[in-house]
């Protein structure tokens, strides 16, 4: 009799431990706190939602209003998209709710897509709780970095449509560096594109656009910026060895060269794009005549860091939504090899 009671006691304690561990896991995931062991099925479900989000931006017919914060700047946008269009219509609103003239901002939800999320080992993927944003239910997906070289990302995705409703980018101290959230959203499910008509653009790798440097340095970087605007690109190469006279002796774990854009009418490399599957860094290389008397530049705007310096007679500008230490590590590994 005593042995039977002890057996039931042990079974009860084991059950309590299992329930407590499960609840703790859900609480940690919903808060976006570090928890490096992830159940494989949850990771697969999280990646599936991210993949659906990637295509939903192009496939859905939607209109809404969202708030977007980056650094100290807070903006409100009205966004409209018709199923099948590659680009949505985005207008910035003023504080009174009216349009800021007729200016269309270069803001796009496609920026928050990650076409190579499933191929990265630099993050762990997990499901959090369920929230409600703009009168829509959404499933929280937490993307946790495995080192200090990248940021934590938190998505809230409508499980019915795959639409991104809320996004946060946070540093290791859980400080929000960048965030967007819909306040109003209407989705026309019937107008959504059939799966067979999904645009190829939804799986196309996105290249970060050049980011303007701080005002006091615009004059010094003006020639490079103008060259980027007027650039007639050659065919893009993804061969990591096709870097012209440039080499990376070392890169942060997980990062690799995914795109190389040559300089127009030259064999010189103009832009190198690195990615770890979720975050990307662009390395812009200016002609030698634009790199005279250039001091080192360091600038941050929310999650975006910019670092510029002179190297081997070239002006090199590093731009990415990664910690500054990541740009520094990439810069230290870049070498010029004369041929």
Characterization of this structure:
The chain is an alpha+beta fold and 339 residues long. It folds into 2 domains: 28-203, outer membrane lipoprotein receptor (LolB), chain A (Clam); 215-336, Phosphorylase Kinase, domain 1, CATH 3.30.200. Helix content is 22%, strand content 37%. The chain is built from 4 helices and 17 strands. It has helices spanning 2-31, 40-59, 218-230, 324-333, and strands spanning 61-70, 73-81, 89-93, 99-104, 123-133, 136-145, 152-157, 164-170, 176-188, 246-248, 256-262, 269-275, 280-286, 297-301, 304-311, 314-320, 334-336. Strands 4-3-2-1-9-8-7-6-5 form a 9-stranded antiparallel beta sheet. The chain has a 6-stranded antiparallel beta sheet with strand order 11-12-13-16-15-14, sandwiched between helices. A hairpin with a 2-residue loop joins strand 14 and strand 15. The longest helix is centred in the N-terminal third of the chain and has 30 residues, at 2-31. The radius of gyration is 23 Å and the shape is globular. The model is unreliable at 4-9, 15-38 and 195-234 (pLDDT under 50).
